[in-house]
Structures are given as C-alpha cells and as structure tokens.
Write a structure and sequence with these properties.
alpha/beta
Length: 244
C-alpha cells in the first residue's frame, strides 16, 4: 500500500521540524514542508497530497484558514489545523472551512497519530458513501420526455400513477403531471414489471406507493388519490399483495 502523502504548512521552524519528525516516525510521506500559503498552494497542485496539516497563524499574507479556503476551490482533501491560539473566535473561523480535525500546539505524538487515524477512517467512509450514492443515481432507472425544447428526465421509481388521456399517457410524480404521446401498453413495457401493475384499462400504479386497498369499493389509494380497480385486474393486483 502506498504511503499517505502529507503536505505540512508551518512557519515556526522549531515546530515544523518537530511535526516532520513525528510524521516520519509514523511512516507518512511528507511531500513538502512549507511556511507560506503561496508555496503551499504550488506544492498542493504539484503533489496532490492525501492530507494537509497546516498552522492557522502563518506570518505574512494569508493565514492557514485563508489557505484552506483556496485549496477547497482546487480539490477537497482532509485538513487538520494546528494552532497555538485556541480561542472560540479562531475555532469558528477555522470550522467554516470544513476541517477534519483541530489540534492545539505544541503537538503531542499520540494526539497527532490518533487524529490522523480518525481523519482517514472518516474520509474513507465518506468516499464509500459518495460512491454508493453516485452508483445508485447512475443505476436509477429513468427515461426522458420532450417538453418544448427541453428533455425532461423522468425518474421511474418516483412515478406514482399513469393514466390514459386520449392519445396521451399522463405520468404523475408528486403533484406534477407529464403528458407523453405513447400508448399505455408501450409505456408499460418500459417500466419494471415487478414495480408497476395495471388496475384498470386506463390506470397503471406504482405498487410501492399504494397505501390502502379498499376491497369493498374496489379502490386503491396512492399518494392521496383514490383509483378504482376493475374486476378484470383485481387478480393481477392481489398477486403483488403480501397478505398476513
């Protein structure tokens, strides 16, 4: 496994040497050690570190908080702030940049090691969560329909009902209605068979959104709407009902 690459930004020479020694003993790869924001940004772009460890109170020009605001516009990586000025005002300013940790100086070995470990545990979990979300969005079934000069994305899981209106099918999502010039049979073939069923000659419903089935009045309730189901489709509807 490749070593974790760290960019260290610290203008106090004694403290910088101290933290460098600690990081080296822990087995991390220090890609560079800078004492100002300009060189830090240059190094960040050139080396793409896995972690930025920066002092807040840098001398001359921008401070560490300014630096992280600028780095966040380039790419998002975990940041640990170091500071000798542990006041609420400084903490709140630092917090606005979205850091992963905040360590008071002088830096203690065990404290630094634990914080870095927790930071990467959190960062890996966030990457997995983002990956899962991206994958689910990517795999979510959908199709597009033309509305004027635009193509409107229709998310299939969000469709509650489809109703025939003349030569069109009216697709309902929440309180929005989209009219598509397609037959109900053609549209039905585009939808997952295990998620939708016909309840009448004119209606198709999303099974997961049915909140109530009135067997006496032969009605299904879906998204607050009552839709009659015919005897011809009752058996098909009941096939999808897990009755206990």
């Amino acid at each position: 496994m490749d070593k974790i690459k760290i960019l260290l930004v610290e203008d106090d020479l004694v403290e910088r040497n101290h933290v460098e020694t600690l990081l080296s003993q822990m087995g991390y790869d220090i890609v560079s050690s800078e004492d100002n924001t300009l060189d830090a940004i240059t190094s960040f772009c050139a080396n793409r570190p896995d972690l930025v460890l920066t002092d807040i109170g840098l001398k001359g020009g921008d401070n560490g908080i300014d630096l992280v605001h600028r780095l966040n516009k380039i790419d998002r990586v975990p940041v640990i702030f170091l500071t000798a000025n542990d006041t609420d005002d400084v903490f709140n300013l630092a917090k606005a940049t979205g850091p992963y940790a905040y360590i008071s100086k002088p830096v203690e070995p065990k404290n630094l090691e634990r914080h870095i470990g927790l930071v990467f545990q959190r960062f890996e979990l966030e990457k997995k969560e983002l990956g899962s979300v991206a994958k689910s969005v990517e795999e979510a079934p959908c199709f597009y329909t033309k509305i004027g000069n635009r193509l409107k994305k229709i998310s299939i899981p969000e469709i509650s009902t489809v109703e025939v209106e003349g030569k069109y099918c009216c697709i309902t999502i929440d309180s929005h209605h989209y009219h598509v010039k397609i037959s109900l049979t053609e549209l039905r073939n585009k939808l997952p068979s295990n998620a939708f069923t016909r309840v009448s000659r004119k209606h198709l419903v999303n099974l997961s959104m049915i909140s109530d089935i009135d067997l006496q009045d032969q009605m299904v309730v879906i998204a607050g709407q009552r839709i009659a189901f015919s005897r011809n489709y009752r058996e098909e509807l009941m096939k999808h009902v897990d009755l206990i």
